[in-house]
């Protein structure tokens, strides 16, 4: 079994709108983490290239880019799966994020599973020397902060 973080929340939007804000507007709601930065200089400005095989990229202030991961599942309004790696991960180290969008009445339940943390060696800098449980708790906090802003972004949007 893989070590993972799982979070879920409901937002006041239909699944297509929630998917659109998640993928097309990630730069407006993504919150960097001091512990899990994409690179030493921060997270930059994240953006998805739509579709399976597309990339999650970040662009830094100096104009350089970094590929965080490739999209393996792109089902608008339903499901998104993509690889996630920080710049200090070697080529064979990567985690995976799965996001599901489920209608619940007039809302959408968004669930996020960030898995495969066990593929990152225990002594890797991304773990900051924390034991497994603490690493996962801090990764959950990282997602929770971003999802809080995501939920506010959806609530403040005129585009329904």
Automatic annotation (TrEMBL):
Q: Which organism is it from?
A: Candidatus Segetimicrobium genomatis
Q: Which residues form the Activator of Hsp90 ATPase homologue 1/2-like C-terminal domain?
A: 13-132
The record's family statement is: Belongs to the AHA1 family.
Tell me the superkingdom of the source. Bacteria
Spell out the InterPro entries in the cross-references.
ASHA1/2-like_C (IPR013538), START-like_dom_sf (IPR023393)
What is the designated name of this protein?
A: ATPase
